TrEMBL record, chain A:
Residues 6-210 form the ABC transmembrane type-1 domain. Belongs to the binding-protein-dependent transport system permease family. CysTW subfamily. Part of the binding-protein-dependent transport system for molybdenum; probably responsible for the translocation of the substrate across the membrane. It holds the Pfam family BPD_transp_1. Its main location: membrane. This is Molybdenum transport system permease. It comes from the Bacteria. PANTHER family: MOLYBDENUM TRANSPORT SYSTEM PERMEASE, MOLYBDENUM TRANSPORT SYSTEM PERMEASE PROTEIN MODB.
UniProtKB/TrEMBL annotation, chain B:
PROSITE patterns: ABC_TRANSPORTER_1 (PS00211), ABC_TRANSPORTER_2 (PS50893). Residues 1-216 form the ABC transporter domain. Transmembrane segments: none annotated. The lineage of its organism: Bacteria, Pseudomonadati, Bacteroidota, Cytophagia, Cytophagales. Pfam families: ABC_tran. The keyword Ribosomal protein does not apply. Gene3D superfamilies: P-loop containing nucleotide triphosphate hydrolases. The keyword Nucleotide-binding applies. This is Molybdate transport system ATP-binding protein. GO terms for molecular function: ATP binding. It comes from Dyadobacter arcticus.
């Protein structure tokens, strides 16, 4: 079995999840506590990937990334980077596609904390920044872990978007889900099964670890 | 909300009134956690809030301590870390050790809040609010969830700290006993308005003030007529008391009946409480 698609899949999922975590922390805070007009619009845009068919997102990203259109041309001119049919393009597409999976659990985690924790921190002279990193985030670890794993798993399971903008280039854009599809198309069920089994097993183990860790984190908070 | 009062420096003021009267909102406005629509809040010679001049001093700069009803201890930190959190890096940690000692928490300083009882958590909250040596301490029904003995202990602790550090205090409470024990001033709010302000004696016991009455809620346990007086055994705030009431009230006071007595108003005084 060629391990490259699996390696590529997990590399893509890891990079995507890390980037999204960095983006999602301030965004989730802003959505949870920010006072601004147009909150509905912001939430609708972030939530779009939950309901849109991946092929729709893939199609528009394909157009956007293409050097024939201004965004793709601009990126290529400034950074010398071609996003279409490339790994960086795949990362950007995955980040957009998995955005709600990272933001929503973290936002829910932040909102579930009592308001008095933030207020107590302010009355102790602490800034919003300190309060966020030292009080709020450490107290919603289970939500952050859940968000990270959901994002990771969602990226591993990505198929439509990858196919649209990444194509099928071995070692560059040919991830495990696409490989499985290819093997099935070639009636090579044994190979397809091997890849599928690996994804199946790894995904199960990850979720198992997450729920065990989360349960123990939550148990610690319960008064004895 | 329409509230206006002045609190002399170093005094303890109780803020009371029915639920929804706006007590917590007022406390949070003083703390700067909520901004009033209009008005002015000043402390010593500093203006904290002035809607006309567009002054809004952030909470962080008001040097207040705040004790929350739900304690608001940081669950991720130990008792000691909860107190240390208030200090900036490199600041002298002596005050933390002192406060832990004075609140009897030294032994528990390595525990997380969830490992503590309600009374212990409240002591941590009080100690934490004092780390920065505030000029004004705000307490939102701090002792409401505690039993009688614990409540008294914490009231004594609060008085001890107040006498030592000489900060001003505004405490939201429903407990009239607590008001008399702690407060030099009491402000009674109802429906967003200040309806009475003065010393506890003036507000509750002096008949001349508009809302000057002491209300006692009780439940009848048993009722006996003797020498033309009705001896009523009643449950008042979880304690059995004997009340002597006019015989004519017998018909109203069947066992299980909840009733309210008003003392010290212009309405006739209808009974005396004998404490056992």
């Amino acid at each position: 079995m060629d391990l490259q698609p699996l390696w590529l899949t997990f590399r893509l999922a890891t990079i995507t999840s890390v980037i999204l975590l960095i983006i999602a922390l301030p965004l989730a805070y802003w959505l949870a506590f920010g006072k601004f007009k147009g909150r509905g619009i912001a939430e609708a845009i972030i939530g779009m990937p939950l309901v849109l068919p991946p092929s729709v997102i893939g199609f528009y990203l394909l157009l956007a990334f293409s050097p024939s259109y201004w965004f793709g041309a601009y990126i290529e001119k400034i950074f010398g980077l071609r996003l279409v049919f490339s790994f960086p393009g795949l990362v950007i597409a995955s980040v957009l596609y998995s955005l709600p999976f990272m933001i929503y659990p973290i936002r829910a985690g932040l909102q579930s904390l009592p308001l008095s924790l933030r207020e107590a921190s302010y009355t102790l002279g602490k800034s919003e920044w300190d309060t966020f990193f030292k009080v709020l985030l450490p107290n919603c670890k289970p939500a952050i872990l859940t968000a990270f794993v959901l994002t990771f798993a969602h990226t591993v399971g990505e198929f439509g978007v990858v196919l649209m903008i990444g194509g099928n280039i071995p070692g560059v854009t040919k991830v495990a889900s696409v490989t499985i599809y290819n093997e099935v198309e070639a009636l090579n069920y044994t190979a397809a099964n091997q890849y599928a089994m690996v994804l199946f097993a790894i995904t199960f183990v990850i979720l198992l670890i997450v729920y065990s860790v989360n349960n123990s984190l939550l148990r610690v908070r319960q008064p004895s | 909300m329409e509230v206006s009062f002045q609190l002399p420096k170093g005094h303890i003021m109780a803020l009371t009134g029915p639920s929804g009267a706006g007590k917590t909102t007022l406390l949070k406005q003083i703390a700067g956690l909520i901004n009033p629509e209009t008005g002015r809040i000043s402390f010593n010679s500093t203006t904290w809030f002035d809607s006309d001049l567009n002054v809004k001093l952030p909470t962080q700069q008001r040097n207040i301590g705040f004790v929350f009803q739900d304690y608001a201890l940081f669950p991720n930190m130990t008792v000691r870390e909860n107190l240390l959190f208030a200090l900036s890096k490199g600041e002298d940690q002596g005050i933390v050790a002192d406060l832990l000692k004075d609140t009897g928490l030294t032994q528990l300083s390595g525990r997380k809040p969830f490992q503590l009882s309600g009374g212990q958590q409240q002591r941590v909250a009080l100690a934490r609010a004092l780390v920065l040596k505030p000029d004004l301490l705000l307490l939102d029904e701090p002792f409401a969830a505690l039993d009688h003995i614990m409540r008294h202990q914490l009231q004594d602790l609060l008085l001890k700290f107040q006498q030592r550090y000489q900060f001003s205090v505004i405490i939201v409470t429903h407990d009239i006993g607590e008001i008399f024990r702690l407060a030099e001033q009491v402000a009674v709010m109802d429906n967003g308005k200040l309806v009475s302000f003065g010393t506890p004696y003036e507000v509750y016991l002096n008949k001349k003030t508009p809302s000057g009455h002491l209300i006692i809620h009780a439940e009848v346990l048993s009722c006996q007529k003797q020498n033309n007086i009705l001896h009523v055994q009643a449950l008042v705030e979880n304690k059995i008391r004997e009340l002597e009431l006019p015989v004519e009230m017998e018909i109203q006071l069947l066992p299980g009946t909840h009733f309210t007595l008003q003392y010290g108003t212009d309405s006739p005084q209808i009974g005396i409480i004998k404490t056992h």
